[in-house]
Fold this sequence. Notes:
The structure holds two protein chains of two kinds.
Chain A: H1 6-38, H2 41-46, H3 59-65, H4 68-100, H5 106-118, H6 123-132, H7 150-161, H8 165-173, H9 178-189, H10 191-207, H11 210-215, H12 224-233, H13 237-242, H14 254-288
Helix pairs in contact in A: 1-14, 3-14, 4-7, 4-10, 10-14, 12-14
Chain B: H1 4-18, H2 20-30, H3 32-54, H4 68-71, H5 78-85, H6 87-107, H7 109-120, H8 124-135, H9 142-153, H10 158-167, H11 181-206, H12 210-218, H13 223-248, H14 255-261, H15 267-270, H16 273-283, H17 287-314
Amino acid sequence: xxxxxxxxxxxxxxxxxxxxxxxxxxxxxxxxxxxxxxxxxxxxxxxxxxxxxxxxxxxxxxxxxxxxxxxxxxxxxxxxxxxxxxxxxxxxxxxxxxxxxxxxxxxxxxxxxxxxxxxxxxxxxxxxxxxxxxxxxxxxxxxxxxxxxxxxxxxxxxxxxxxxxxxxxxxxxxxxxxxxxxxxxxxxxxxxxxxxxxxxxxxxxxxxxxxxxxxxxxxxxxxxxxxxxxxxxxxxxxxxxxxxxxxxxxxxxxxxxxxxxxxxxxxxxxxxxxxxxxxxxxxxxxxxxxx
Amino acid sequence: xxxxxxxxxxxxxxxxxxxxxxxxxxxxxxxxxxxxxxxxxxxxxxxxxxxxxxxxxxxxxxxxxxxxxxxxxxxxxxxxxxxxxxxxxxxxxxxxxxxxxxxxxxxxxxxxxxxxxxxxxxxxxxxxxxxxxxxxxxxxxxxxxxxxxxxxxxxxxxxxxxxxxxxxxxxxxxxxxxxxxxxxxxxxxxxxxxxxxxxxxxxxxxxxxxxxxxxxxxxxxxxxxxxxxxxxxxxxxxxxxxxxxxxxxxxxxxxxxxxxxxxxxxxxxxxxxxxxxxxxxxxxxxxxxxxxxxxxxxxxxxxxxxxxxxxxxxxxxxxxx
Lengths: 291, 321
């Protein structure tokens, strides 16, 4: 192997060290949150920062899962994520497929889609349309107004365009109509890429916060991010979680409850992250192709 | 063949002229299933993306929920004139622009630097580990990111605890002081999005022909000369495209993030156009004025992105459209 000059080795070492620091800056805050969520009250009070709790305590988790409003919000969010992702996939894949075929009005509809990337009417007119369509205080308000991400639609259309047209021609010769071609050939072929879109949509639903604030008035319908904000940012752990319940005796300190709630709200993201990672480079590259 | 063609063409033109509706109908009929499955998506765009654009009409009337859209009085550009006469809005506009300016100066270059650093790594395993870590914060919700930030920065939080223990400093009110609002917003964006932003730059870097580097090494170019003369020119057009898109969002300051960070103490430096529209429109039901502010924001964004695109083209870059 060629011996590299000292200066070059030094810059290499500095580069590795700096990148390690950057990665630690991303990881350690979350690690601290995780550690505190398991720490005992005494240890939390004694130390400013906790990396490894001396004794692992589950009190904070028992507390949040004993709270009706927290458990309910997890349920609501799971429901929203599953149903919302299904709606996303159905709406996006069907329109993406239609637009990938030489159908009448294709250019016009594509232009309509592209324009929404550049300009949107803004919060108030959208709010009023959601109101007019009768969705205020309904969970559908968190699903239908974001049924299609225009960006995902364009990427998915790009993907459908890449499917060889010979498949299509062969199916037509065999007497299949467009509905059968889409259902029996295109969709089964696209399973892996649909899974990737599903993951991205699901993460968006799980993390959706503001739509809940904007459209839902009943606290019982709040998704987890809204509850989490009440607990952590507003700092009302006990009032948000405790309202009307019989609470555990010796409730754990608000801080460990906050951290436990953050961990629970992040866990699903961490679980799907390895699968996401397999796809997103491809997704971003596809999207960056001009066309 | 050749002789027949003009004849065919005239008959096609005649057909198109005389029997246009029939042909149109036949095309519709041929594609009926395709159109059928595309309909829900099209309906979505019409209802939730384009119907609100009709609602922009509200910016030109004095809308009151009791009178309805049709009987509210027309006021023309009154609400837009209010935008420039109102001291509070000028402050909000200034906050929006200064946060964007800080983002473009400090947050925009970070993914580029990070991508260059990642690109210089020799160990592919180490590179992949670092990538996995720095991409992760992008997928956390703003509530989680700000929750963690609050835990660290609040009055009796981790940072204040450590600085007091180590240096004996007094606690700094990071979250409730107007002075710290903007820097914290920029730092949060860097923490959450810098890693994610490297993906598109790394993709552009992957397209660089390795022979260019080999040739440069033969010519005795140093590491930094290689970066300056090969790597940077290779990603220049990507950077220009990203900058164009960023410019189009100058009046967009990340609604959720700022909304979550705002409190009565930092409202003065933290309130931006998006949050202003929310407070005015949704909380105070001043629909017409809030719509006008939103329309102003959207219109400026559209004009900016189109002119940045034109400018880029004039300087010989590709542009986005």
